[in-house]
TrEMBL record:
UniProt KW Transmembrane keyword: yes
Protein name: DUF4878 domain-containing protein
Keyword set includes Protease: no
Region annotation Disordered: where it falls in the sequence: 1-151
Bias kind Low complexity: ranges: 1-11, 19-45, 52-68, 104-150
Transmembrane segments: 177-199
Keywords assigned: Membrane, Transmembrane, Transmembrane helix
Stretches of the chain forming a coiled coil according to its record: none
């Protein structure tokens, strides 16, 4: 192929400067480019003042050296032979690869044996230590259930307190045994502290604030007034703080489903414990205040005071037990109100008092006793008897009214002892149908406002002349009143 000016024939690059073939001859020919197809020649444009007219040309412009071109790439070097054996390392050719063996774990030293305690102090069984050589962190094969946090305590405090105290005692005892020297003494002290706190010693007792409230409510639900009184702070006494009252309460509104919230509010010797329980078909939610004493925690506000001073004249009783005062001191529970005055009764539907919370004291003050049918009949009988006694009087005046003036018209003087009084037919019918009314302003008082028509005949005298006649428009009968709360009820006329 014909060479072009300024180029090198590719065949010449086969020999280097030393004439040795196959070495870097291409690199020795500076400015050489690889031969390629020649560009077609373009006629040269006439020069004007030595400048090119800008027309393309394959020849280099005058005055400039030819372009050296690009150096050919030497290519990637052949990788060196790393010398891997055909069959791989550590196995014969064609054999299946083996997994690497696990490194052996170091053996663990055996745990020291727990010294035995004297026979006078039996220890709870201690789990056997792990065998020597077991890997660190090994666990027992038996699954351990994840503890569930109990947010609500339910009735049955005795067993729970015993178990908690026992576990605490055992843990303290084991920790005492781990101390070198004097471990038996420490274990005995820890165990005795747990037992002492369980029975109320140790400055606070085994039962904490929550357990104290739970035990108190449990005693009430079981009808044990003595146990309940032992759990309250004050040395309370009263006719209704008895097993008899609790037994009737359990019939009327049984105390059930006791729940005590875990975690008492406050710190120091006084705490607040939230609890709830059922009283019959009613759910009671309330807070109890407990205070720490030398003998343990005690409930401060476990009793409920129900004021009954408005009903005191009627001799009220609760669950068949006379209250005997203006205020009833009660355990939480249900109580049936009754009155000791036979002529009166509690209105229907208002006799059950459910005393659960001191902040929700039943409104016994607003109960208005009603006269019973037997009371109404007795009132009529007493009024008739008293009125008949007055009608039999012949004097000018009586305690029932129907009084007569000493003189009448025309100067006639009424003869004392000659006055005759009687009920008319209309009056007799009114007396039979007398309508008693309980006086709301006077507890136990009953009255009647019926008009009783009467007739009065009398003898008069003027200048030695005596006459008999009927008094026109006589004074009427007074209003009868009976106080049935009196020790000896009588009819008075007002």
């Amino acid at each position: 192929m014909e060479s072009m000016p300024g180029t090198v024939d590719p065949a010449d690059g086969a020999d280097d400067a030393d004439g040795a073939p196959g070495t870097d001859g291409a690199a020795d020919a500076a400015g050489a480019v690889a031969a390629g197809p020649a560009s077609p020649a373009v006629p040269a444009s006439p020069d004007r003042d030595g400048f090119s007219l800008g027309l393309p040309s394959s020849a280099p412009p005058r005055g400039l050296s030819p372009s050296p071109g690009l150096q050919p790439s030497p290519g990637l070097p052949k990788p060196a032979d790393l010398g891997f054996p055909a069959g791989g390392f550590g196995r014969e050719a064609g054999a299946a690869p083996k997994p690497p063996a696990a490194p052996a774990l170091p053996e663990m030293p055996a745990l020291p044996e727990t010294p035995a305690l004297p026979e006078a102090l039996p220890l709870p069984e201690t789990p056997a230590p792990a065998a020597a050589g077991s890997p660190s962190g090994a666990v027992s094969a038996a699954p351990t259930a994840a503890p569930t946090p109990a947010r609500v305590r339910r009735a049955g405090v005795g067993a729970g307190v015993g178990r908690a105290a026992g576990e605490a005692g055992r843990r303290s005892l084991i920790r005492g045994l781990a101390v070198a020297g004097g471990f038996v003494v420490l274990g005995i002290l820890a165990l005795s502290g747990a037992v002492g706190s369980l029975f109320g010693g140790g400055g606070g007792g085994a039962a904490g604030p929550e357990e104290t409230v739970e035990a108190y409510l449990t005693a009430l639900s079981e009808g044990d007034a003595g146990a309940a009184l032992a759990g309250i702070e004050a040395e309370a006494r009263g006719p209704l703080l008895t097993d008899e009252a609790l037994a009737e309460s359990a019939r009327l509104a049984p105390l059930e489903s006791v729940e005590v919230r875990e975690g008492a509010d406050g710190d120091g010797p006084t705490r607040t414990v939230s609890a709830s329980f059922a009283l019959g078909d009613r759910r009671v939610f309330r807070d109890f205040t407990v205070r720490e004493h030398e003998e343990g925690w005690r409930v401060v506000d476990g009793l409920v005071e129900v004021p009954l001073d408005a009903l005191a004249p009627y001799a009220p009783s609760l669950n068949g037990i006379p209250v005997g005062g203006d205020t009833a001191l009660l355990f939480p529970g249900g109580y049936e109100l009754a009155l000791g005055v036979e002529e009166f009764a509690v209105p229907e539907g208002e006799g059950l008092i459910v005393a659960g919370d001191i902040l929700e004291v039943p409104d016994a003050q607003w109960i208005s006793p009603v006269l019973t049918p037997e009371g109404e009949e007795r009132f009529r009988e007493m009024v008739r008897e008293s009125l008949e006694s007055c009608l039999a009087e012949t004097s000018i005046t009586t305690e029932c009214g129907m009084n007569v003036d000493e003189t009448v018209d025309d100067g006639y003087r009424v003869i004392d002892g000659a006055v005759q009084r009687s009920l008319t037919e209309t009056g007799e019918a009114a007396l039979d149908a007398l309508a008693p009314v309980a006086d709301s302003g006077e507890p136990g008082s009953v009255t009647a406002y019926d008009y009783l028509d009467i007739e009065i005949r009398l003898e008069v005298e003027r200048d030695g002349e005596r006459r008999t006649g009927t008094l026109m428009a006589p004074e009427g009968v007074l209003t009868p009143v009976v106080d049935f709360t009196a020790s000896d009820p009588r009819v008075t006329w007002e």
